[in-house]
Design brief:
391 residues; alpha+beta; Chloramphenicol Acetyltransferase; 2 domains; 3-stranded antiparallel beta sheet; 10 strands; 15% strand
């Protein structure tokens, strides 16, 4: 049995059919040269033989009992309830494959079973196939999920040590405890916990004070104001269950040239591109904003000593650039805003940022349950999550 952290539990408490709390990854793969026509089917059959699960892929949620909500091991696991093969009658374009993945993403996951699905999509034009992996967010944050996927992939086309993500051994944790606890170490641990609680409370007070100073006009653009985004775009309002997937790519050498020539980070350049694209999308819909687009941006809070699963993140609000046709001005302003965010996150303990995120999420959920989402200012226009891929 393993208890849920409050942040992990939040993903269950706020989940609904219109707003499921699972996340997913879609990967487009190329078959090996001269691969047999049944390559994907044989790959699927081999994957079916891998049913020795590791945590958290063998855990189910249990809300019953005096111990409160907790994870427990699944006693009747069947790989056929989690591993799926899709072979269309005709070849799919990449867009059709994305539409299929979007349809697979819509339904809520069955809480009576481990909360993950692995889909192998065969028959994509150009000798391609796709892997779609769907997991509940209570299992882990995006950085951890990406790490799992990276570890499950071979580093070379010649390598063929199949290691499905659900069978990966947990990584070694640094500073593992010896198992022996003396009275002195126990007292030291209690003292350390008490001091961390004090630091956490102080950090929450600091984050709250920053909001108060900004709202009172005593600071200017030091932080983005929570629950102050106007509902003047189709990106705000109540969620609906429908999903769609769109993808785009830019060559890394092009991004690196931009980054170096402007003394910016890759994150700055990416957000400037996204900001400009969102303004162009809104303008094409007849909506021209006179204020920045606000985004919720997840921040990784995981350290080397944290466990291999669960969520260790906070969510910060970021006002992007004021509307402009000058891409360099947009990039410079976003860089300034992100430096403020970096200082804000670094200025408080990670536990403070995590607990503050939970408080804000709780307020959002109350507003949603009271059906005030379409009447009150919202907390940002959309979410932009930047998860680094393989190095």
């Amino acid at each position: 049995m393993r208890k849920l952290s409050l942040l992990d539990l939040i993903f269950f408490l706020v989940e609904s059919e219109d707003s499921p709390k699972h996340v997913a990854g879609l990967m487009r793969c190329k078959k090996p040269p001269k691969a047999r026509a049944d390559y994907c089917r044989r790959l699927f059959d081999e994957l079916r033989t891998h049913d020795q699960l590791t945590e958290p892929f063998n855990l189910v949620i249990n809300f019953v009992g005096l111990q409160g909500p907790h994870w427990e091991y699944c006693q009747d696991f069947s790989i056929d309830q989690h591993l799926f093969y899709h072979r269309p009658k005709r070849s799919l374009s990449w867009q059709e494959a994305k539409d299929l993945a979007a349809a697979l993403h819509e339904p809520l996951m069955d809480r009576d079973k481990p909360l993950w699905e692995f889909h192998l999509i065969d028959g994509i034009k150009g000798g391609r196939f796709a892997i779609y992996l769907k997991l509940h967010h209570a299992y882990a944050d995006g950085m951890t999920m990406t790490s799992w996927l990276n570890r499950s992939l071979s580093e070379s086309p010649e390598g063929y040590d199949l290691a499905p993500v659900w069978e990966l051994p947990p990584p070694r944790r640094s500073g593992a405890a010896s198992g022996k606890t003396s009275l002195t170490s126990a007292l030291g641990k209690l003292t350390g916990q008490a001091w961390r609680q004090v630091l956490t409370a102080g950090g929450i007070a600091k984050l709250s004070a920053q909001q108060y100073l900004e709202r009172s006009g005593l600071t200017h653009e030091a932080v983005a104001l929570l629950f102050s985004t106007a509902k003047d775009t189709p990106m705000t309002g109540s969620a609906t269950p429908g999903r769609s997937i769109a993808t785009s790519s830019v060559a890394m050498d092009r991004l690196n040239r931009l980054r170096k020539s402007t003394c910016s980070t890759l994150n700055h350049v990416a957000l400037a591109c996204i900001d400009g694209a969102m303004h162009r999308y809104l303008a094409a819909s007849g909506i021209v904003l006179d204020h920045p687009i606000s985004i919720q941006m997840p921040v990784n809070l995981r350290t080397d000593g944290d466990g291999p699963a669960g969520n260790k993140l906070g969510i910060t609000l970021v006002d992007l650039a004021r509307p402009t046709d000058d891409p360099y001005r947009r990039l410079r302003e976003i860089g300034y805003k992100l430096r403020n965010v970096k200082n804000q996150v670094a200025g408080v303990p990670g536990s403070s940022f995590e607990q503050f995120t939970i408080l804000v999420a709780g307020m959002s959920e109350v507003i949603d349950k009271l059906q005030l989402t379409d009447r009150l200012p919202t907390n940002g226009h959309t979410v932009v999550s930047n998860v680094p891929g393989p190095v």
